[in-house]
Amino acid sequence: MQITYSEKLKQYMQQKNLTHIEISVVEPSGCCMGFSEIVVNFVNEKDMPKLKGKILRTLTGEIGDILITSRGVELDDTIHFDLKNFLGVKDINVTGAHAWKI
Predict the structure, then answer these.
(1) pLDDT digits over 3-49, tens only?
(2) Domain containing 33: what range?
(3) Rounded Cα gap, residues 40 and 33, in angstroms
(4) Could you give the CA distance from residue 44 to residue 25 in angstroms, rounded to a whole number?
């Protein structure tokens, strides 16, 4: 499995002292619509104790680890992370990770 980060994301993570990336799935509760979405978050070392019991799989990234916290995450052979900026809010864009589908 090949995991890559964009240069913008690497610089931002080093500048903000962010060490890990969490990937999870969000699904509607109490609804039978049958869709789910991938959620990707930055995680720093001080927040790691909050995730201790939730981490199902750990992958080694270019900076820190990729923490999978949902069973419904499917990964391709190549995963690429990029930094998005919308109205000053930074977010992670991922290609190669998908929510499980029937």
Answers:
(1) 999 999 999 999 999 989 999 988 766 665 666 788 899 998 888 88
(2) 2-99
(3) 22
(4) 20
